[in-house]
Specification:
By secondary structure, this protein is of the alpha+beta class. It has helices at about 20-30, 55-75, 105-120, 140-145, 150-155, 195-205, 270-280, 295-310, 320-330, 340-345, 345-350, 360-370, 380-400, 410-445, 450-495, 500-525, 530-560; strands at about 5-10, 10-15, 35-45, 50-55, 90-100, 125-130, 175-180, 185-190, 210, 235, 240-250, 255-260, 285-290. The longest helix has about 40 residues, at about 450-495. The chain is globular, with a radius of gyration of 28 Å.
Length: about 575
């Protein structure tokens, strides 16, 4: 586990109508310093609220415990009613590894949380997903079977003794399911019907487990069984998807409610498209969709690229444009506004100081650079010049993709444009990272040095900060180098009207590389690990030499063209 490990927690509480109770649980989470509450998503019809928060594993476990304790005190399951399956005041509390931590390490934190909830709060706890202690408890739906109303009877079965906590039924709090899982996306499809039966028909078409086969009538007919007497199922079209149909009174529509348990297997846009096909075949229409909780940025960008390609356009658009296309194509704003800053995980956890420079206007950035301060300086400018070079290459790729008569080349140019956007985004991020690295060095030099221990600590911090200050311009140099393939291809194969745009991009890339190299050398003067530094310098010098050759090549090409 890395010292900056981050996990996400997405507990589901059996209260979606009483704002005072929802706020009390949220405040219990906010009360743990170092935890960031990203999203609160209540549902009146389901009478259920999903909260999302992130932080270090220890802090997240502390916040989860505080929230479960609060929920057990203010939610009485004896009076709870709602559309969503549930067994407790805190129905389920998954931990999800985000960065710097493995799934197995996350499982251990889930077990610690479960043990504490069982012992200190007297709530029966079942472990599920990767934390499950028994195969029949891996699936959340299996644990929930019978729901709260059947829990007392279920707990009398030796097969369903809780993993932690009392073995007696807790009528007020019910039971809680705790585990570690992959990132799950809760995604609902809106239909132009009020019929739960018809929504379920679509859900059964989609979900991996499909529907039970029956003879004659699909609902009333006799169940078809295999040689072991087990019901035979007709699988649905989507892998790693769970789905049911329900009616949402506050919206006046039926929905197909899906859990996408692996968005690499079934992305959001694929689930949406298949839902449209199934609905259409049944005389229904999908009117939009909604994301419950939060979603990774890449899932939305992938959807945006898919719909642009479907329109015959280049997928190499900016993140902002891809998000806009995804939201409109999926109808994510039909029921409520879709705010990327609140619904996309990476945007929600981003710290404002990490984007101070790139959020400035061009004039502000130039003025900030011109001030009587050492940062931003050559490193940040090199990264920005490199980003401009990649942007020019991406522009040529997009123009070429839309050129009339070049329709058969759409995929070729679109792939280059997507790559260019990724390189540009990396270089833009390095603009602020370079300045932050310089500030870390200054902070290290400002540490006290009165004693031998303080001197040792100070020197160690200086060396750590210096290594980062070398790695960042090295990354700038590599990203600018990576843009050369795009720019060279666009120079020779792109829209001929934009040949000089690609040429200017090559000049920008070479300038960014040279500038980054200067920063590597100046920051490396006081770095102690000379072997590592020399490896960096040799590799950087080789890349710069290639860039210089390409610059000379395109200059000669243009000189011959213009005589």
């Amino acid at each position: 586990m890395h010292e900056s490990s981050i996990i996400e927690c997405v507990p589901n509480f059996s209260e979606g109508r009483d704002s005072s109770k929802i706020n009390a649980i949220a405040e219990a989470i906010r009360g743990v310093e170092g935890v960031q509450l990203l999203d609160i998503d209540p549902g009146k019809a389901t009478n259920r609220t999903v909260m999302t928060f992130v932080g270090s594993p220890e802090k997240v476990v502390e916040a989860a415990f505080a929230a479960i304790r609060c929920a057990s005190q203010i939610i009485d399951m004896r009076f709870h009613q709602g559309e969503h399956p549930r067994i407790g005041a805190t129905d389920v509390c998954p931990l999800i590894p985000i960065s710097g931590i493995s799934m197995q390490e996350t499982v251990e934190y889930a077990k610690k949380l479960a043990q504490r909830v069982g012992e200190e709060l007297g709530i029966p706890v079942y472990l599920y997903a990767y934390a499950a202690q028994k195969p029949n408890r891996e699936n959340l739906a299996t644990i929930r079977a019978g729901e709260y109303e059947g829990l007392a009877q279920k707990m009398r079965d030796p097969e369903w003794i809780p993993d932690f906590g009392p073995t007696e039924f807790n009528p007020r709090a019910g039971a809680t399911v705790i585990g570690a899982r992959d990132l799950l996306v809760a995604y609902n499809i809106n239909l132009n019907t009020r019929s739960v039966r018809r929504a379920n028909s679509v859900a059964f078409d989609l979900r991996e487990q499909g529907r039970i086969l029956r003879k004659g009538h699909p609902v009333l007919g006799e169940i078809v069984r295999d040689e072991k007497g087990e019901p035979v199922r007709l699988p649905g079209v989507l892998k790693a998807v769970k789905a049911i149909g329900w009616y949402i009174e506050e919206y006046g529509i039926a929905q197909v409610s899906m859990n996408l348990t692996n968005i690499r297997v079934t992305p959001i846009h694929v689930a949406f498209e298949e839902a449209c096909k199934s609905a259409s075949a049944r005389g229904l229409r999908v009117t939009g969709s909604e994301l419950v909780g939060m979603v990774p940025l890449e899932a939305i960008l992938e959807a945006g690229r898919y719909f642009l390609k479907k329109q015959g356009l280049s997928a190499g658009a900016s993140d902002e444009e891809l998000i806009h296309i995804a939201v409109k194509s999926l109808g994510l704003d039909e029921l409520a506004p879709f705010d990327p800053q609140k619904k996309i995980i990476e945007y929600a956890i981003a710290k404002p100081e990490e984007h101070k420079l790139v959020n400035m206007s061009l004039k502000q950035f130039a003025d900030e650079t011109a001030r009587e301060t050492p940062a931003p300086g050559g490193g940040s400018i090199s990264a920005y010049v490199g980003a401009l070079g990649a942007a020019l290459g991406t522009m040529v790729a997009n123009l070429s993709a839309s050129k009339r008569g070049w329709e058969e080349k759409l995929d070729f140019f679109s792939k280059w444009a997507v790559q260019g956007q990724q390189i540009k985004k990396s270089l833009v991020a390095l603009v602020d990272q370079d300045t932050m690295a310089f500030n870390q060095i200054m902070q290290a030099y400002a540490l006290p040095k009165n004693t031998d221990v303080e001197k040792e600590v100070r020197q160690k911090k200086i060396q750590e900060a210096t290594r980062i200050a070398i790695e960042i311009p090295y990354n700038t140099l590599k990203q600018a180098y990576n843009s050369l393939s795009l720019l060279k291809s666009m120079f020779y194969e792109g829209n001929p009207n934009s040949i000089t745009d690609a040429a200017v991009g090559i000049l920008c890339a070479r300038t960014a590389m040279e500038g980054a190299y200067f920063n590597i050398r100046i920051n490396g003067e006081n770095y102690e690990d000379k072997n590592w530094l020399n490896e960096i310098i040799v590799e950087a010098s080789g890349m710069i030499e290639e860039a210089q050759k390409l610059e000379n090549e395109i200059k000669n090409f243009l000189a011959q063209r213009w005589g």
